[in-house]
Specification:
This protein is an alpha/beta fold. It has four helices and 21 strands.
Length: about 240
């Protein structure tokens, strides 16, 4: 298990806001060492279990996130739940007492526990839009460019640029024509800032991909943001 450390007092909320980090924290908040947040970003929920968060992404309301990596340019609504712990269903019991809650042994006597990973890493790619009230099962991957409709329950990986709705979540279509998707993925346009892409024909994905290709040809370097990093000594900027 990754170590937890206090966020610390080295960075004030006001200073981080000046750098574009709109995040919820207190100096005593316990954070996972190695977590990285790129600026600018906005996270209106606890950041403790969000181990990586890309620039120009936002979470626009309270939710629950456990062991999740989130890419750039993501738009996430309120009441989204990602990575809830799972109990084994092929063991003798589904009770978590088989692998955790050692403090209860003080009352009933101790017992040997079996190792079990309850929360696997969930990965949300770049440019993903997740609607209000969505549930994502722990351990899945949501591909770049995907759209997850409000209140969907998603239990399986989602391919790039898929539109998923319902319970259980199902793909109803691709967000863009199949012929365009490979060029957009190959362009990795999310590596650039909006300012670098000023003038890009965003409303025409095919031309937009070509615009980004021209950026690379002209030698424009990808955007390198300020990063808020959780080190063994607490939060720092790099």
């Amino acid at each position: 298990m990754t170590n937890l450390v206090p966020f610390g007092n080295s960075l004030s909320r006001a200073h981080l806001l000046e750098l574009g980090f709109e995040i919820d924290f207190a100096p005593t908040s316990l954070m996972r060492v190695g977590s990285v947040y790129e600026g600018p970003c906005s996270i209106k929920t606890s950041i403790r279990e969000i181990t990586s968060f890309g620039a120009f992404s936002y979470i626009n309301g309270r939710g629950r996130f456990s062991n999740v990596r989130i890419g750039r340019y993501c738009s996430i609504a309120e009441a989204v739940s990602v990575g809830y712990p799972e109990h084994p269903i092929d063991w003798m019991s589904t009770s978590s007492l088989q692998y955790m809650r050692p403090n209860w042994s003080k009352v009933s006597g101790d017992w040997k526990r079996v190792q079990h990973t309850t929360v696997r890493e969930t990965v949300i790619g770049n440019d993903v839009w997740i609607g209000a009230g969505v549930f994502l099962r722990t351990g899945i991957t949501i591909g770049t460019g995907a759209v997850i409709g409000a209140h969907a329950v998603v239990t399986k990986d989602v391919e790039p640029y898929s539109v998923v709705v319902g319970n259980p979540g199902r793909v109803i279509r691709k967000r863009l024509p199949d012929r365009i998707i490979p060029d957009l993925v190959a362009s990795a346009w999310w590596e650039f800032s909006p300012a670098q892409m000023s003038g890009c024909p965003f409303n025409d994905p095919e031309k937009a991909a070509a615009f980004v290709a021209d950026l690379r040809t002209s030698g424009i370097q990808p955007y390198l943001p300020k990063k808020l990093v959780i080190s063994a000594d607490g939060a720092c900027l790099r």
